[in-house]
Design brief:
about 325 residues, alpha/beta, Aminopeptidase, 6-stranded mixed beta sheet, two-stranded parallel sheet, globular
Length: about 325
């Protein structure tokens, strides 16, 4: 047996190391590619920008500024923006408006991606100052920020479906802690009613996904009960959680927890659109003055954005 020189031994070892690195790169490439397709840092910057507008309850000056900002943002990226304006008998004089952004408008079969963009008028669960200022970084801005970043992927999205973003108004235009459930989700209820009444529409929503409170730095997303009421809804949840597995996001837990009244309920019950609510309901600063950008993270926004984008690319 011939003894190798030290130079030959080093050369052989280097080749083995390079081969191992190449194998790891090829094996991990799908995960890294998925991670790089959604910029969580930029999404967090959008969240901060939204929060700098201050309070954003329905009909407020902050809401008007937010609407202007979002219209400009989505139109600059090629989206078709319209406002679905409405009023409600419980709140005379308040002007509400859902913001709808259409991508690939010629596609008849479509996916709805939603979030509410209003904030609660007051932080009424705050133990010290329940009539203080509610910024709504997680509960309001986080879902909007994810959609703002997802918009960059929409023009070149390869999917069998067209996509509509719907930012719902008046999800929680509520002035007291113990409000009736029917007082919530006025914007999504109006949207669902108009959709169900329009028998001449040329498009149909095959799936819906609502994102709410997805910026929590301690992200924990469980399967939500109202998302699982139908066979198609259960299939949708399975597909989204499978997408989370493919991109390596472990914060989508398989356990079922919480029954939440959110914008997906009117979409499911009135519009009959199978809709999943992606929500982290275990948020200690919910409806308090502590719901500020510092309680959120770019990493959490990135994880949710990557999961939704992966699901969109493979939606059946």
């Amino acid at each position: 047996m011939r003894r190798l020189s030290w130079k030959a031994w080093l050369g052989g070892s280097a080749a083995i190391v390079l081969l191992a690195v190449a194998i790891v790169l090829v094996w991990q490439w799908p995960l890294w590619a998925a991670q790089s397709s959604f910029d969580g840092d930029q999404a967090y910057e959008y969240l901060v920008e939204i929060c700098k507008l201050g309070r954003r309850p329905s009909g407020s000056e902050g809401m008007a500024k937010q609407q202007e900002m979002l219209k400009r943002h989505f139109e600059d990226l090629g989206g078709k923006v319209e406002f679905q304006k409405f009023e409600h008998r419980w709140h005379p004089g308040v002007k509400f408006a859902n913001l709808i952004v259409q991508w690939h408008p010629r596609a008849k079969d479509r996916v709805l991606l939603g979030a509410h963009y209003d904030t609660r008028p007051y932080p009424d669960r705050d133990p010290r100052n329940p009539r203080g200022t509610f910024i709504g970084a997680n509960d309001g801005a986080s879902g909007v920020a994810v959609l703002m970043e997802l918009a960059k992927s929409m023009p070149k999205l390869e999917s069998k479906y067209g996509v509509d973003f719907v930012l719902f108004d008046a999800e929680e235009y509520i002035f007291r802690v113990e409000a009736d459930q029917k007082e919530y989700c006025l914007g999504s209820e109006y949207f669902a009613l108009q959709y169900s009444k329009d028998k001449s529409r040329e498009h149909r929503y095959v799936w819906g996904v609502v994102m709410d409170m997805v910026g929590d730095a301690d992200l924990q997303i469980f399967k939500e009960k109202n998302s699982l009421r139908t066979q198609k809804g259960s299939q949708l949840v399975r597909d989204i959680w499978a997408a989370a597995g493919r991109v390596g996001v472990r914060e989508f837990y398989s356990r079922v927890e919480h029954e939440v009244t959110d914008d997906h309920v009117p979409l499911n019950n009135i519009a009959k659109i199978p809709t999943c609510d992606i929500i982290d309901f275990d948020y200690p600063y919910w409806h308090t003055e502590g719901d500020v950008p510092e309680r959120c993270s770019a990493a959490s926004l990135s994880k949710v954005g990557r999961v939704v984008l992966e699901w969109l690319k493979t939606a059946r």
